[in-house]
């Protein structure tokens, strides 16, 4: 007994837009994996940069007597993301990289500018 079978449909080639979409999704997945893998390195570099910036800006502001805006010229190249704020009453400078790190340095008499530790920073807030 013979059975009727339908002829196999020919496979249609994948459209160009679908190929581009899959390629972009693959690149996005690789980028996300890279961010997850390197986040600790980026956070460590941000913490180091903010500590350096707070100390340099505190010295610039409260030892040299310059304006806070002029202290940005003392930074190393690549520190454009670091922002500064100062508290003239307590002679403190806070440096921060948004969502990553922050540090505070304070002028303490003859000792110059000193970094505040986490407990001291929490006591301020």
Question: SSE layout and pairings?
Answer:
Elements: H1 16-62, H2 68-71, E1 83-87, E2 92-97, E3 101-107, E4 113-115, H3 118-124
Antiparallel strand pairs: 1-2, 2-3, 3-4
Description:
There is one protein chain. The protein has helices at residues 16-62, 68-71, 118-124; strands spanning 83-87, 92-97, 101-107, 113-115. With 125 residues, the chain is an alpha+beta fold. Strands 1-2-3-4 form a four-stranded antiparallel β-sheet. A hairpin with a 4-residue loop joins β1 (83-87) and β2 (92-97). The longest helix has 47 residues, at 16-62.
What is the overall number of helices?
A: 3
Q: How are the strands of the biggest sheet laid out side by side?
A: 1-2-3-4
* Content of β-strand: 15-25%
> Which oligomeric state applies?
single chain
Question: Notable features of this structure?
Answer:
4-stranded antiparallel beta sheet, single chain, 125 residues, rod-shaped, alpha+beta
Task: Give me a quick take on this structure.
This protein has 125 residues and is α+β, with helices and mostly antiparallel strands. It has helices spanning 16-62, 68-71, 118-124, and strands at residues 83-87, 92-97, 101-107, 113-115.
């Amino acid at each position: 007994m013979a059975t009727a079978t339908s002829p196999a449909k020919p496979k249609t080639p994948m459209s160009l837009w679908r190929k581009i979409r899959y390629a972009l999704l693959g690149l996005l997945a690789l980028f996300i994996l890279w961010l997850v893998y390197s986040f600790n390195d980026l956070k460590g570099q941000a913490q180091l940069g903010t500590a350096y910036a707070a100390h340099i800006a505190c010295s610039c502001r409260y030892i040299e007597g310059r304006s806070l805006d002029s202290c940005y010229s003392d930074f190393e190249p690549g520190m454009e993301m670091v922002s500064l704020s100062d508290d003239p009453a307590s002679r403190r400078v806070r440096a921060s990289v948004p969502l990553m790190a922050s540090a505070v340095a304070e002028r303490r008499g003859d000792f110059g500018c000193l970094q505040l530790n986490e407990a001291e920073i929490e006591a301020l807030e």
